[in-house]
């Protein structure tokens, strides 16, 4: 009979790289295993700019959350594919602007959830919750999120790098549609993902997929833009990650345009 500890150990799969832990390594974090850092080094050998791309995507999250909490006035966030906690997590960004903000984090890596429960603590006025679920099960995510969020009021759904982990056969657009259909008018989607228009990155991802517990699927910018179908894109639309409302006076790192992003509203 398998106990909870053995079950958690099996889920961690420390013998194979996991996307959240590899991402943590690329961002300079320490919450990863040797197999994850080795996979990260393989990616960097093939595509040395990947660490900069990881940082760019993290900064897009910060700009998007500040925009959604500040200019749009959203007070509820559903962060799917949370990743390991780092600086300026979604709840910190949102609650800095509006302390009453409520955030639900979703991930299916047990290490992420362990760290999240310990480190991602809310303001007294707001709330944080953590859902152990896969984006492939949107109904479960919505049911669990509804314990913390009021799904009759606008919610900002953030999906950074997560749709790339879903193959075309698993119908990623339908998963997003299911999630957005359950949210009311005024809700928003912030999404970014990697593109397939750089041969070095394509090779790096191919090598990564050959050894990882998770595979990543690069798509064309047009395919990623299609995830926003039926929503109203805010300016500047779907653009290179570094180009989405860059912070004044803080130039982004020069790197290849290998990811695109956008924010759109359900009206």
Characterization of the model:
The chain is of the alpha/beta class and 267 residues long. 39% of the residues lie in helices and 15% in strands. It is built from ten helices and eight strands. The chain has helices spanning 4-12, 19-26, 34-46, 50-72, 90-97, 110-119, 138-145, 172-181, 199-209, 221-225; strands at 76-80, 102-107, 127-132, 156-160, 188-194, 232-233, 239-240, 259-265. Helix 2 packs across helix 3 (34-46) and helix 3 runs antiparallel to helix 9. The radius of gyration is 18 Å and the shape is globular. It holds the Pfam family Methyltransf_19.
Give unreliable regions as ranges: 1-10
Helix content: 25-40%
Q: What characteristic shape results from the CA principal axes?
A: globular
**What separation lies between the terminal Cα atoms?**
51 Å
Major β-sheet annotation: 8 strands, mixed
Q: What value does the Rg take, in angstroms?
A: 18 Å
Portion in beta strands:
5-15%
Average of the residue pLDDT scores:
86
Number of helices: 10
Structural class given helices, strands, pairing? alpha/beta
Q: What series of H and E elements makes up the topology? A: HHHHEHEHEHEHEHHEEE
Query: In total, how many beta strands?
Result: 8
InterPro entries: SAM-dependent_MTases_sf, SAM_dep_MeTrfase_SAV2177_type
Protein name: SAM-dependent methyltransferase
GO molecular function: methyltransferase activity
GO biological process, one term: methylation
